[in-house]
Write a structure and sequence with these properties.
This protein is an alpha/beta fold and 224 residues long. It is built from seven helices and nine strands, in the order ααβαβαββαβαβαβββ.
């Protein structure tokens, strides 16, 4: 049976996290969130979460990294494709969790190992910057227990794809017990990718607003 309410997982997550989510007005879990929990999200299992936009993927990531940080399992790294998105996540996560942990962002100088990051619990970065941090042998990387890869379908992107693919490969070698959470709204080979990641696939088609397809012509829309 799926766990579909916040109260149903109250005993599985740190009390501080439950309190924050309750204050955010989260009482019901969306289908993908419930499926991820059933698949072992809170037990450290690696997952590939493929669901439509606005279906709740970010909360899956938050449950993973907050569970690890508050239970002192290690640091978490949140990888995003764009600096603008990194800043957005940084502001949002600080608003919610700044009183519970130290949140850092690293998206700048590629010639620096950013040694100050060793004092942070959650580090938000881009794939290019994390690749640079690894090449500069940032010592705090060995303390990472959770890696979130947002927009993981960009592995197919001619520009960013190769860097992201190599980065994930290196992380899996460096961090043998890392929990890897891949998030994607659109991906054509999700089964193959989940196997490559050695992660369980969480797929769901639920979306908060039903999607209708149609053709617009001369001021009118004809729906299929």
């Amino acid at each position: 049976m799926l766990m579909d309410t916040l109260e149903s997982i109250k005993e599985k997550i740190p009390e501080q996290l439950h309190s924050v989510l309750h204050k955010e007005g989260i009482d019901e879990l969306r289908p993908a969130q419930a499926k991820a929990i059933k698949a072992g999200l809170l037990e450290g299992k690696s997952l590939l979460v493929c669901t439509p936009t606005a279906s709740g993927k970010t909360l899956v990531a938050e449950l993973a990294f907050m569970n690890a940080i508050l239970n002192r399992k290690g640091k978490a790294v949140y990888i995003v494709p764009l600096k603008a998105l990194a800043n957005e996540k940084y502001k949002d996560f600080r608003r919610k969790y700044d009183h519970l942990m130290k949140i850092g962002i690293s998206i700048g100088d590629f010639d620096s190992s950013d040694p100050y990051l060793h004092t942070y619990d959650l580090i938000i970065t881009t794939s290019e910057k994390l690749d640079s941090l690894i090449r500069h042998h940032a010592p705090w990387l060995r303390d990472v227990s959770v890696v979130i890869v947002d927009e993981i379908h960009l592995m197919n992107d001619p520009g960013r794809g190769p860097t992201l693919e190599i980065l994930i490969t290196i992380l899996k070698q460096l961090l043998k017990r890392v929990q890897l959470i891949g998030l994607s709204a659109t991906i054509g080979n999700e089964k193959e990718l989940s196997e490559w990641l050695d992660a369980k696939l969480v797929h769901d088609d639920w979306r908060p607003v039903e999607l209708h397809k149609g053709v617009y012509l001369e001021g009118k829309i004809e729906f299929e």
